[in-house]
Amino acid sequence: MAAPAGLRRSVVSPAGRHTASLIFLHGSGDTGQGARAWIKHLLKQDMAFQHIKVIYPTAPARPYTPMKGAFSTVWFDRYKISNDCPEHIESIDSMCRGLTDLINDEIKNGIAKNRILIGGFSMGGGMAMHLAYRFHQDLAGVFALSSFLNNDSAVYQALKRNESVLPELFQCHGTADELVLYSWGEETNKMLKSLGVSTSLHSFPNLNHELSRPEIEKLKTWIVKKLPVEA
């Protein structure tokens, strides 16, 4: 599939002067608006900042193999939801091009690349790791919530050849996750750390494949640390 021309997006504008941007990628079958609403429900308000624009893009609908080819809003296709199968690299790379356009839109708006964070929930976090560690190693950081990379991921292959300073990874995962196992997130974290990524993995006991308020509060603290207010 060709990269989409202009992804639909839901945006939370900064309260003050816009000096940084955050791109949050939803999980499979969701939308940008849906991810924003979920976080708003947990926090009882939008995830908003004085200086950071928060962008929730929506993946275009495409056939999704784990749903027997039914159309779903997914960032890429998978052969199955497992860490021990090959990646559907064609669909991943196509979406990397579409999301690069989104990053470039922010740069055209005067935001420096090292003032842009990208991450997401589940598949969104996996997509963010591909985008940052293979194509945009000068971003401010990456976050992955309940996410994983396949054991033979193209991300690992790219980092084996890398000599650049890499964006920090902030990871969260529920220990009771039955869809994306906690051990998959752990393995992803260990592998990236061994390849030179500065990583943190925050575990949330009894949390299944979902977001929680303590998790989002912890994420917000990290976001402001990585994208501080400019003097």
Automatic annotation (TrEMBL):
One Pfam match, given by its short name, reads Abhydrolase_2
Q: Which molecular function terms from Gene Ontology are attached? A: carboxylic ester hydrolase activity; palmitoyl-(protein) hydrolase activity
Q: Which UniProt keywords apply?
A: Acetylation, Cytoplasm, Hydrolase
Subcellular compartments: Cytoplasm, Cytosol
Q: What's the Enzyme Commission number for this chain?
A: 3.1.2.22
Catalyses: S-hexadecanoyl-L-cysteinyl-[protein] + H2O = L-cysteinyl-[protein] + hexadecanoate + H(+)
Cellular component annotations (GO), alphabetically ordered:
cytosol
Q: Could you tell me which residue ranges the Phospholipase/carboxylesterase/thioesterase domain spans?
A: 10-225
* Coiled coil location: none
Q: Superkingdom of this entry's organism?
A: Eukaryota
Protein family membership? Belongs to the AB hydrolase superfamily. AB hydrolase 2 family.
Task performed by this protein: Palmitoyl thioesterase that catalyzes depalmitoylation of CGAS and KCNMA1. Acts as a regulator of innate immunity by mediating depalmitoylation of CGAS, thereby preventing CGAS homodimerization and cyclic GMP-AMP synthase activity. Does not exhibit phospholipase nor triacylglycerol lipase activity, able to hydrolyze only short chain substrates due to its shallow active site.
Q: Which PANTHER family match?
A: LYSOPHOSPHOLIPASE-LIKE PROTEIN 1, LYSOPHOSPHOLIPASE-RELATED
What this protein is called in its record is Lysophospholipase-like protein 1
